[in-house]
Amino acid sequence: WHLATHNMLANLIVKLSHELPDVRQRSVHSLRTKVDAHLLDVGEVCRAADLPAKLVSLTSSPDSLPSVQLDTLALIDKLSSDAGFARQLVLAGAISVLQRVQTTSLEAAPPGDAVAAAASCAVDAILRHPVGDLPAIERPIALDRTPPAAPPPPGGARAIFARPGGAVSSASRALEFGAA
Question: How far apart are CA 150 and CA 167, in angstroms?
């Protein structure tokens, strides 16, 4: 792995927390594009110690545009193929942040549904790995907080994210989680 590539990655990660939203947007898009094009090795990117916390922070930032959220969520989804990275995301509070993103995105105008679906995929990717001795992770529940009509399937829970008033968004999907 070349020093130039290492420096490029380090610069992109630093810019993820830049004070200007435009710089953060370009940085996360560039990072996603380079990972998707295999210009950056996923394993090396996953070893960047401060990346999980920065991605969680960027996802939860109130001034993040949907395009920034989509790029960030796609990165979280892809990088969560690494169990160690997924664990670091959990420690950084990603599950609760992503659940909040799902909820608020479903209540927003389009492309909120796409952001909510991407957040759902990111949660699935993170929770594919055993969490071991980490604190208990709260599983998503229905937004209207009504109990399910039937008991959950063996070994997991199912949640459907609905819009206020009970209408289920067309881009929403059920989440299924295996036993932890």
Answer: 19
At 148 the pLDDT is 40
Cα dihedral 48, 50, 52, 53, rounded to 10, equals: 180
Hey, which bits of 65-122 come out as E strands? Answer: none
pLDDT category, 61, cuts 50, 70, 90?
Answer: confident
* Separation CA 164–CA 41 (nearest Å): 42
Query: Which of 105, 44, 54, 96 has the alpha carbon at shortest distance from 76?
Result: 54
Report the C-alpha gap between 162 and 180 in whole angstroms.
25
Q: Are 80 and 126 in contact (CB under 8 A)?
A: yes
Give yes or no for a contact between 113 and 105, defined as CB atoms under 8 angstroms apart.
yes
Supply the pLDDT for residue 48.
93
Looking at the predicted structure, is the pLDDT value of residue 73 above 50? yes
Rounded to the nearest 10°, the torsion over CA 48, 41, 92, 138 is: -160
- The 8 Å CB, 24+ separation contacts for 119-122 are 119/59, 119/69, 119/73, 120/161, 120/172, 120/173, 120/175, 121/73, 121/77, 122/73, 122/76, 122/77, 122/80, 122/94, 122/98
User: Could you give the CA distance from residue 145 to residue 153 in angstroms, rounded to a whole number?
Assistant: 18
- Tell me: the pLDDT tens digits for 32-42? 999 999 999 99
